[in-house]
Amino acid sequence: YMGLPGAARTRSGSPGSSAALPALDGAFLRSPLGGLMGAQAVLGLLVWALIADTTYHLHAAYGWVMFVSIFFWIVTVLFFVTYLLQLQLKFYVIPWPLVLMIFNAVATVLYITAFVTCAAAVQPTSWRQWDYNRRAAASFFACLAMVAYGASTFFSFRAWKGLGSNAATSQVTDHA
After folding, report:
1. Closest by alpha carbon to 54, among 114, 115, 139?
2. Fewest 10 Å CB contacts: which of 12, 33, 42, 44?
3. 56-70 burial string, b = 16+ CB within 10 Å, else e?
4. How far apart are CA 118 and CA 114, in angstroms?
5. How far is CA 34 from CA 8, 29, 61, in A?
6. HSE-up of 144 (CA within 13 Å, CB side)?
7. pLDDT of 96
8. Is the entire prediction scored with pTM above 0.85?
């Protein structure tokens, strides 16, 4: 689980504190993956909120953009909370680095399609100027989300492959 902050860390506390809420993983928040996940959540929220505030139901293309942005926003928030609360340590059987890499790669590809769809469907001659402005802004934020998921795919791949570590560290963390 190299490259994922907090993956090899164990918690210690006073006796009887095991029933307490898990500690927040500050190292995750300061890591590239943590920062990018936070950015993805904000950008995804902006995309679907901007589209939802238009008459998107009159244009089939925006249905796809809404699906992609809401689906990946929800799953990203769930992953973010999972890593922030270190819950992935409780489910050690799941290959988290691989799952996160596949998720980010799929999100990148689908956000490419959502960005292109959203940008192509923006029509400057719309009779509702505020719809045009919101859809154009949503296209911009969809592009930023696409880039953020692409960068996360890169960092997730490095974490999955254990790049930047040595054999001794990977032995310790894989069996911790």
Report:
1. 139
2. 12
3. beebebbeebbebbb
4. 6
5. 16, 5, 31
6. 18
7. 92
8. no
In three-state secondary structure terms, 166 is: coil
What is the residue-wise DSSP string for 63-126? Answer: HHHHHHHHHHHHHHHHHHHHHHTTGGGTTTTS-HHHHHHHHHHHHHHHHHHHHHHHHHH--TT-
pLDDT digits (tens, 9 = 90+) for 112-128: 999 999 999 888 765 66
Q: Contact 111/142 with Cβ under 8 angstroms? A: yes
Q: Work out the average pLDDT over 80-99.
A: 92
pLDDT at res. 149: 98
Q: List, in order, residues 6 or more apart from 13 with CB less than 8 Å away.
A: 20
Nearest partner of 119 among 47, 167, 26, judged by Cα = 47
* Tokens of residue 66, six digits: 């809404």
| C-alpha dihedral (140, 40, 70, 94), degrees to nearest 10 | 150
Spatial contact of 138 and 118, defined as CB atoms under 8 Å apart: yes
Angle between helix axes 96-121 and 32-52 (nearest 10 degrees) is 30
